[in-house]
Amino acid sequence: MTLANDTTSPAETLRADVRAWLEQHWDADLSVDDWWRVVAQAGWTAPHFTIEQGGRGAHRTAGNVVRAVFAEFGALLPPGGLGLLMAAPTILAHGTDDQIARLVPPILEGHVNWCQLFSEPGAGSDLAGLTTRAERDGDRFVVNGQKVWSSMARDSDYGMLLARTDFSVPKHHGISWFAFPLDQPGVTIRPLREMTGDAVFNEVFFDNAVCDADDLIGGEGNGWAVTQTTLYFERTGIGAGGSHAGFPVPGPKGGMLGRRAGDAARDPVPGGSLIVTLPELIALARARGRTTDPHIRQKIARLYAVSKLGQWNAQRAKAEGARGGGQAIANLGKIAQTRIVKQSAQLGADILGADATLAAPDGVDDGRFTGALVFSPASSIYGGTDEIQRNIIAERTLGLPREQLPGKGEPYADVLRTVKSREP
Question: Among this protein's residues, is 52 annotated catalytic?
Answer without folding.
Answer: no
